[in-house]
Specification:
single chain; alpha+beta
Length: 416
């Protein structure tokens, strides 16, 4: 397993800081939320249009009101279509910003047109005489509908702005034109309505922006924290130099392998690099560290390539200093000897042009079988004795220690 961070990077790591989310990403997400389902979100608008169309039957300007209601329905259809396009582009997250900008501009244009049509509906209520139930119903429905539309669109301030601009462009001139009918109070109310609603939408939009930015920052921080915890857990279980399991977790993993393979044979291999202290003394710890990392990589690579059995598993650890240990499930005595020799030959044949000419990689191997009726430390001790026997016999060779009966005091070691 490769170490996710180099030791120097981990040592230089700083505490997690507050994540900074670009404003354009927050606005983009707000826009996606404001869009929602473009078709479903606009269906409620048909209800006030139906009410206003029904109330228009009692108006003198019935034809004008019905025409505006029909035009508003058409605008809603066009707005929904462009909103669907914007939603698709935001979902696809295309690299090109131009198509997205054009689609948004067209969508906001139709929202402006929709606001302008709402404002024109005021003209249909301008009739001589006293206020009737029809124009009262239309006026109240109109104001409530526009107000709710602006509040709902507050998350996307551009949307609320477009709608209010369109409404102001038509409602104020219409009210001025029919001043004799509406009077100064209505004119003042119509003039103050757009800026008041825009102020409210701006406040709500800022709150939504701040809330979403905090939410997105928390998501990023949670991801970073999860990654940091994963790395911390990894480092607590692995050797920081080689990325192999450390001694404690090797024992844990190996016990788990045994529990999953009660009936199968499990082999233990101890490896000690030859003349490693000499390499450290003559060429420095930097080269020594590289030798250890290379050894770990070669052993892992060889174990992945070995065809032991379909259900075979293994664990590799740095046991301490220049010592390594390997556990292999479903591995017979013959196989563990063969595997030990293959790994030893791989190490012996390895050449690195960046290393000094005098540096040669080799190891002394001791192997044994761990039987289910003995503790792990007994098998490790037996493999360790076999490994020291290999070193005593001249290094760069493999020895196997067989399992002995309870009455035997010393494990039998045989040379390949």
């Amino acid at each position: 397993m490769e170490l996710p961070l180099s030791p120097s990077t981990f040592q230089a790591a700083t505490p997690l800081e507050s994540a900074s989310i670009p404003t354009n990403l927050v606005r983009r997400e707000l826009l996606k939320r404001a869009l929602g389902n473009p078709v479903v979100n606009r269906l409620p608008t048909l209800i006030p249009l139906f009410v206003m169309g029904y109330a228009a039957l009692g108006l003198a300007a019935r034809d004008l009101m019905l025409a505006l209601v029909s035009l508003q329905i058409l605008t809603i259809v066009l707005t929904s279509y462009t909103a669907i396009r914007v939603t698709e582009i935001l979902t696809e997250e295309q690299k090109s910003r131009k198509p997205e900008t054009n689609a948004i501009r067209l969508w906001l244009f139709f929202e402006l047109v929709s606001g302008a049509i709402w404002g024109l509906m005021i003209a249909a209520t301008a009739e001589s005489g006293q206020m009737t139930s029809s124009n009262t119903t239309i006026s109240v429905t109109l104001i409530v509908t526009v107000s709710l539309a602006v509040i709902v669109a507050a998350e996307a301030r551009g949307l609320a702005k477009a709608m209010l601009i369109g409404f102001a462009m038509t409602s104020i001139p219409v009210t001025l034109y029919h001043y004799e009918h509406f009077g100064s109070y209505v004119l003042l109310a119509v003039c103050l309505f757009p800026p008041t609603m825009y102020w409210l939408a701006d406040r709500l939009g800022k709150q939504a922006h701040s809330s979403l930015q905090t939410e997105m920052e928390n998501i990023v921080l949670n991801q970073k924290l999860s990654e940091a915890l994963s790395i911390s857990e990894y480092l607590s279980a692995h050797d920081s130099l080689t990325g192999l399991l450390n001694r404690r977790d090797f024992e844990r993993v190996t016990e788990e392998l045994r529990s999953r393979n009660r009936l199968g044979e499990l082999a233990i291999i101890m490896v000690d690099l030859d003349n490693f202290k000499l390499i450290n003394d003559q060429y420095g710890h930097s080269l020594g560290d590289d030798v250890l990392r290379t050894t770990a990589r070669l052993m892992q690579s060889q174990l992945r390539d070995l065809n032991i059995s379909a259900s075979s598993e293994n664990a590799v650890a740095r046991w301490g200093g220049e010592e390594f240990i390997i556990a292999i499930t479903n591995c017979s005595a013959e196989n563990v000897v063969r595997i030990s020799e293959q790994i030893r030959c791989i190490l012996e044949g390895y050449q690195n042009r960046e290393w000094p000419p005098g540096v040669k990689l080799s190891g002394s191997f001791g192997s044994t079988c761990w039987h289910s009726n003995e503790p792990l430390n007994a098998a490790i001790k037996r493999a360790d004795k076999a490994m020291y026997a290999a070193k005593s016999a001249g290094r760069n060779q493999t020895r196997f220690a067989s399992f002995v009966t309870e009455n035997a005091s010393v494990s039998r070691v045989r040379q390949l």
